[in-house]
Design a protein that fits this description.
This protein is an alpha+beta fold and about 160 residues long. It is about 30% helix and about 15% strand. A hairpin with a 3-residue loop joins strand 2 and strand 3. Helix 2 crosses helix 4. The longest helix has 22 residues.
Length: about 160
């Protein structure tokens, strides 16, 4: 019985050590943001889109719809974004931002496509500040297609 109590104590302490940093952040703590940023409505009529992370913490997006920029910043697919006005897919924007010197570390390996990198977090701050974007995650069920074997087996 004593061994079970020690094991439970270790598990509870381990969970507390993990949970304390997550829940101890002050509610007013903000995300890092660009030192300087420019957001302009693109009226050129050109349908080309580009996003570039440049050396020195510079970010340049040209002719980009807001919904596309949201997929970049939050690492989601476009079908996972719901709500918002129609112009988030139709209007195009030219955005330039420069991070504070030395705030963007050099990549040490291949990027994880599911985890926002430091530049994406800066773009999140820009979207929340300049476009007043409110973002939350929720689980939804969607219809899917299922491939199944025919009764007589494969007919290949």
């Amino acid at each position: 019985m004593m061994k079970l109590g020690k094991t439970l104590l270790v598990v509870v302490l381990g969970a507390a050590v993990i949970a304390i940093p997550v829940f101890s952040q002050a509610p007013g703590v903000s995300k890092p943001s660009f030192e300087v940023a420019s957001v302009k409505h693109n009226t050129s009529g050109d349908n080309r889109v580009s996003i570039m992370n440049q050396p020195g913490g510079r970010f340049v997006a040209t002719g980009i719809p807001l919904k596309f920029l949201m997929t970049f910043a939050y690492r989601v697919r476009d079908f996972q974004i719901s709500g918002g006005p129609d112009w988030i897919t139709s209007d195009r924007w030219d955005i330039e931002g420069r991070a504070e010197e030395g705030s963007i570390p050099r990549p040490t390996g291949p990027p994880d496509p599911n985890v926002p990198d430091p530049m994406s977090i800066l773009v999140q701050s820009l979207l929340e500040d300049r476009f007043q974007l409110k973002f939350h995650r929720e689980t939804k069920e969607f219809p899917v297609y299922e491939l199944s074997m025919a009764k007589g087996g494969p007919k290949i």
